[in-house]
Amino acid sequence: MDSLELIRAFREVAQQGNFSKAATRLGMSKATISKYIAELEERFGVRLLNRSTRSVSLTDAGALLLERSTPVLEMVELTQTELQERASQPAGRLKISAPHGMGQGDLPNLLAQFMRHYPEVSISLHLSSRFVDMVDEGIDVALRLGPIEDQNLIVRRLVQVNLVACASPLYWRKHGIPKRPADLADHVALTSSSLGPNPQWRFEENGEPVDVPLKSRMDATEGGPLVHVALQGFGVVYLPGLLVQPHIDHGELQPVLQDYVRKDMWLYAAYLQRRHNSAALRALLDFLESNIGKRAKALAARKTPA
Q: Taking a C-beta distance cutoff of 8 angstroms, is the pair 14, 21 a contact?
């Protein structure tokens, strides 16, 4: 039996001065209350109550337990109330992990909007392009580019990620524009370190995946440095449009092979459990699913010629 339940039973008997009254207040039988008190005395190895046929009184040990258990149970009850509130009302701190590139995009604005809507929620945002162990690092939700193959994670698909293969106009003038994905094998690539020592980029041709082996002149853990090097004419990058679109809009980078880019890349919200998530986490997931999609559609509409 849970020690707290035993102590609650003891306190009720002490306050009522009677087993029968305590049993009625707790909705239990008198025999169950007696059993609880006996178990508690057995655990502590000391008598807590003096019993008579008509009433009970506290021993010195019982008086000590009654006094010391009061703040403990008050704290437990207060914590229980707060936990129940967090299960129903968004509150508390959420720890979010996201790739570095998202910190340069619209994510901070979205999180500010979320906090404005839910003033009792605080956020810790951790930007990292490495794989984050959500359990070890206490992450509530990780925003990840996928597909995601980790079977231990629950994932919610937020928005399709548009990849862009591009280089500077200077680079294309010197090396020629590729007509098909396989042509990139003869070009200079600027790649993500996560692709390893033999990097490949995946495209789609006639509905089938096509993996192109690359000659990487530079790799980096983040996309930002690769973009800066590409702007200087040193190679081709293949990155989410979030990182390169401003430079494309200004004519500093020129996209190619747009009919061949892979279509299976999505931004996912990954978390660990389906059940018993806090109201704050449920609210964040619903908010991101609704608003990231809306903003992506609005951005696409602005870039579509009238």
A: no
Q: Which CATH code of 3.40.50.620, 3.30.40.10, 3.40.190.290, 1.10.3720.10 fits the domain covering 163-256?
A: 3.40.190.290
Pick the CATH number of 92-161+265-303 from 3.40.190.10, 3.40.50.12780, 3.40.50.2300, 3.30.70.260: 3.40.190.10
pLDDT of residue 1: 57
Q: Which amino acid is at 181?
A: P
Rounded-to-integer distance, Cα 2 and Cα 49, Å: 20
Q: What is the pLDDT of residue 298?
A: 53
pLDDT over 80 at 297, yes or no:
no
Model pLDDT for residues 113-123, shown as the tens digit of each residue? 999 999 989 99
What value does the mean pLDDT of the chain take?
85
Q: What is the C-alpha to C-alpha distance for residues 242 and 244, in angstroms, rounded to an integer?
A: 6
- Give pairs for 58-67: CB < 8 Å, separation 24+: 58/14, 62/10, 62/14, 65/7, 65/10, 66/10, 66/11, 66/14
Q: Is the pLDDT assigned to residue 135 strictly greater than 50?
A: yes
Residue 13 tokens, joined: 């008997």
| CA end-to-end distance (rounded Å), the chain | 71
Q: Do domains 3-88 and 92-161+265-303 have the same CATH topology?
A: no
Q: What is the pLDDT of residues 225-252, one digit of tens each?
A: 999 999 999 999 999 887 888 899 999 9
CATH number for the domain formed by residue range(s) 3-88: 1.10.10.10
Domain extent listing, the chain: 3-88, 92-161+265-303, 163-256
